[in-house]
């Protein structure tokens, strides 16, 4: 861990912040240990934000990336543009011995080449000319319907 901090926001919540450098990418991981409900939430924050202009395309990229996940999911905060990979699990039967394995899986998933690249491209609108033309063509029926 290159960075580590701990704080308590409420009596029933403990928050840990961890910083990692993975494959030349800095990832901030927040671990929330909650009493009510008894669960652990792990958020890996991606090192870029989504630009408002590309929200529609970013949402589509996130939905496409999330199709392959059973438990965790990428999410986008429309207020600040933050993009995270989130994973939660219950701790009603105690703190699992798999915790470190799960944290590593969250980190690996958040920097997954395919998902990371497509989400970053959509978040920042970095499309090639042919991709832009394809996007405009696919949006034409929506624009036509909304303008009627």
Describe this structure in words.
The protein is an alpha+beta fold and 148 residues long. It contains four helices and six strands. A six-stranded antiparallel sheet has the order 1-2-3-4-6-5. It is elongated and about 55 Å long. The termini are far apart.
Helicity level, as a percent range? 25-40%
Global Rg: 18 Å
Q: Name the structural class.
A: alpha+beta
Instruction: Using the alpha-carbon principal axes, give the shape.
Output: elongated
Low-confidence stretches: none
By DSSP (H or I, 4+ residues per run), the number of helices equals 4
Average pLDDT level:
88
Sheet with most strands: strand arrangement: 1-2-3-4-6-5
**Helix/strand order:** EEEEHEEHHH
Instruction: Determine the strand fraction and express it as a percent band.
Output: 35-45%
DSSP E strands, number: 6
Q: Could you list some keywords that capture this structure?
A:
148 residues, alpha+beta, six-stranded antiparallel sheet, 4 helices, 6 strands, 37% helix, elongated
């Amino acid at each position: 861990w290159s960075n580590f901090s701990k704080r308590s926001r409420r009596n029933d919540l403990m928050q840990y912040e961890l910083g990692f450098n993975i494959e030349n990418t800095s990832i901030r991981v927040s671990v929330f240990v909650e009493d009510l409900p008894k669960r652990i939430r792990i958020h890996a924050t991606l090192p870029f934000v989504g630009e408002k202009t590309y929200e529609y395309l970013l949402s589509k990229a996130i939905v496409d990336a999330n199709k392959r996940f059973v438990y965790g999911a990428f999410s986008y905060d429309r207020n600040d543009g933050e993009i995270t990979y989130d994973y939660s699990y219950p701790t009603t039967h105690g703190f699992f011995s798999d915790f470190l394995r799960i944290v590593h899986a969250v980190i690996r998933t958040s920097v997954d080449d395919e998902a990371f690249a497509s989400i970053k491209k959509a978040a920042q609108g970095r499309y090639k000319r042919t991709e832009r033309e394809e996007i405009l063509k696919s949006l034409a029926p929506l624009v036509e319907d909304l303008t009627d």
